[in-house]
Amino acid sequence: MEGAGLPGKDRMIRVTRKVEFSAAHFYHNPNFSADENRRVFGKCNNPHGHGHNYVLEVTIAGEPDPTTGMVLDLKELKDILETEVMERMDHRHLNYEVPELTGQIPTCENIAAVIWKLLEPKIKSGKLDRVRLYESPELFVDVNAGNGARA
What we know:
By secondary structure, the protein is α+β, with helices and mostly antiparallel strands.
């Protein structure tokens, strides 16, 4: 059983990088009345917004390069996350300052889907496998390669 349990052609290795950012948002559906927005979204409908310290985990799947032993250059992934997520979303009001969220309620689900859309074309080694976004320690959303990420 030489090599048993080691990655091979039929198994992927997954590498995850984590970043944290702070942002404000509020929930509001322009098709709802003021009363319906308050009923559906409660205190999250406050037009002044509220903030979260989001934690984002991005997982890349692939085979390690035989010359480097890496699925991808982690410095490159760090730079992509800085440009595509941190510069766009950190210390921003998501409803007003992130054009990719225009016309969407900035729920954790929608934010994670937008992040997927921003990152996927930038990943050149391996494939984007999962975007996990924590809105709080008790609440997170996963967008996976197999679940038809759309934004």
